[in-house]
User: Fold this.
Amino acid sequence: MNLGGRGLTSTIIKHEVPADCHALGKDNKLIFAPGILAGTKIPNSGRLSIGAKSPLTGTIKESNAGGTAAHKLARLGVQAVIIEGGSVQLVSLYIGKDEVRFEDGVELDNLGNVGVISYGRKKYGDTVGVISIGQAGQQKLSASGISVTSPDFLPRMAARGGLGAVMGGKNLKAIFIDDTQGTTVQPVDKEVYQKSLKQYVAGLKAHPLIGGLKALGTPLLVNMINEMGALSTKNYSQGEWEKAENISGEKISELMANRPNSQMTHRCTSGCVIGCSQVFTDKKGKPIVSGLEFETLALMGSNCMIDDLDTIAEMNSICNDLGVDTMEIGGAVAVAMEAGVLNWGDSAAALALVREIGKGTEQGNMIGNGCHYTGKKLGVSRIPTVKRQCLSGYDPRILKGTGVTYATSTMGADHTCGNALPSPANPDYNPSASSGQAPVSQFLQYYFAAVDSLGMCLFAMLPPLDIPELQGAIASCAAALQGISVDENYLIALGRRVVEVERQFNIKAGLGKEQDRLPSFFNTEKLAPRGEVFDVSEAELDSVHTA
Ligand code: SF4
Assistant:
């Protein structure tokens, strides 16, 4: 079975990185891998997987982002870039056709991602793809991520797990990719490929979810999740918020309708047929951020009780430039609010605190090291993390299948590993049932590990969950591309293999079933207003993984 994306990064780490190594030391490796389908015309196939041992969670880690880098690397025939050891001085890496070289990075020192991107465009022209870290990665903060440029040179973050700190630890500031002499990846079996691709694209475009994502992007989830009573609010003490409407996709759409230069449909990668991203502008039409996502709105908005979209967008923009995870930072600001460092809903104080990260102050370092670190430092007892990674915007007391994923995923709390949302196509699934969640989470964890290995955007792989024929179509595309044959279990077998490799690494790193637990307040504190607790048994949690 061929590997790519997350499957490749995790397999290399499992075999080549000592599980007990220091994540910021020379023995850790940082790996960039396009997915199996990258470099083709398959829509939404341009995710870049980045993997290493995580300085945040201590687990194996894969975080992925859209942008142009995955397609560019695949067009150059590059399956993976593996960064080993470390440089004494700050460097950048240039990758072109048949040419790879390190360059002096002194001019890039202490630049944010926006400055690095601008440098790369000036030096290499407008066809370059840029992978970079901001100041947070250079400071080796545990919440730092890695930016990958979109086709219009906006930063998209592989945000989770502190991978920016691993890159900073190696003194690598940026990778510039020049694919001007690259070529589109061609399928071995053109006929089967074209037929399967046509079937997949038709099914994808006809699915009702796609229209919603095109119109409002992931912020369409704010009102939906709030109505379910599962929206992370006031550091996970409420599941509904009376001001949720103010940070909803509908509100963003209304606001952007009157602002020049805004876009409600924007593509983070070429070939995307959904365009779930947007360009959020200020009143004068100055672009503030692209890709104001549900998770940012939930963690920096409702979870901090901030309902001012302009402030949330500004915090998002600062985080993208510094190169930190908005979810981890939102979670950290909320526990700081719980500790009384600033008041709930104080948007000016929250913005000022986020700005501290770039200044390298004690408070900035605290927040920049994420939710767990901040909560411990401030003596907060309710810290919403698993394996030191902050939960997403879905409260696990209502969405219990997602709670099982938070607890048991190989990555720490991570909704993208298997978010068990209800679907009209699956009316019998009860997301709040206290049993029967483990098989759902396990299936989704395998499925999305396969999606990450193909390099597909997960939104483009939601319709196949409802329509199994589309899973067959995408598997058939992968097979025809590589000239191999696959059976109907291809995706799940691929995903299972990846998760098992990751699990083996984690066990060696000392992270097994005892760590597969949610913080105890989710088990004991009733979530207002529905009164639910997370009551999935430990035996059921332990049944997700065989080891
Ligand atoms: S659907 Fe959204 S996240 Fe996925 S590739 Fe398109 S713009 Fe990027």
In short: The mean pLDDT is 97.
